[in-house]
Amino acid sequence: MWGMILKAFPEVSAAVRGRTVAIEPLVSKIGCVQRLALFDLDRTLIDLDAAFRRWAEEFAERHRLDAEGLTWLVSQDQETHPHREVFFSKVRERFALAESVEELWVDYRRRMPHLVQCYPGVLAGLAELRAAGWRVGIVTNGMADNQLGKLRRTGLAVAVDGYAVSGVEGIRKPERGLFEIAAQRCGANLAEGGWIVGDNLVADIAGGQAAGLRGIWVDRGTWPGHEHRADHVVTAVAEAIAIMRDMHQPG
């Protein structure tokens, strides 16, 4: 998937070589960067892995799968994410299910918003930024029903100034356009800079920096061995919020 993305977007391809990410920030060290913070959704603000585990346990119980079947489901999630159609094709074949791939996929999207939760401190951190005068938004790839459901069920839809979902807009990260839409809905102009916080070195960090944003990579351990030049690296969103807040302190 990422190979296709890199061919489609030369500005990102120039920053990514095979399994190595080398990103040159397009914004000066701090310069005059507006107080705009855009966040990725899955594995950045919400714990998608924990939600998937809960879904897999429910699925295994409903279809009477054994422990080995549950372990297989979780392992396939890591191998096929974000290709859910591929994942459910494998699931249907492995367990000889009567439901179609599309039916399994739709049922998954219907259930997942009820299982996701924000990482600890996320909602409080976003509220802190907005109280300090920041414009805060979310920019996420994914199907409209799934992503909008997550935003609403977690309370994130009303915790930010605006959001852009690829399945709604018809454009995906790392394309600049999705970042522009999110910024506009926050009442900001992307040309004035800002920040992107995300866990994906290509879609979030390379895409955001190519769009003129400073990038904070949330390292969830899913990109082992990848070199990068993100502006900052953290392991939790709270750390990213602290960095942005501290770098914009008066004086």
From TrEMBL:
Pfam families: Hydrolase
Keyword Metal-binding: no
Keyword Transmembrane in annotation: no
InterPro entries per record: HAD-like_hydrolase, HAD-like_sf, HAD-SF_hydro_IA, HAD_sf
GO biological process, one term: small molecule metabolic process
Highest rank taxon of the organism: Bacteria
TM spans (from-to): none
Gene Ontology molecular functions: hydrolase activity
Assigned keywords, A-Z: Hydrolase, Magnesium
Cofactors named for this entry: Mg(2+)
Entry-linked NCBIfam families: HAD-SF-IA-v1
Descriptive protein name: HAD-IA family hydrolase
High-level lineage: Bacteria, Bacillati, Actinomycetota, Actinomycetes, Streptosporangiales
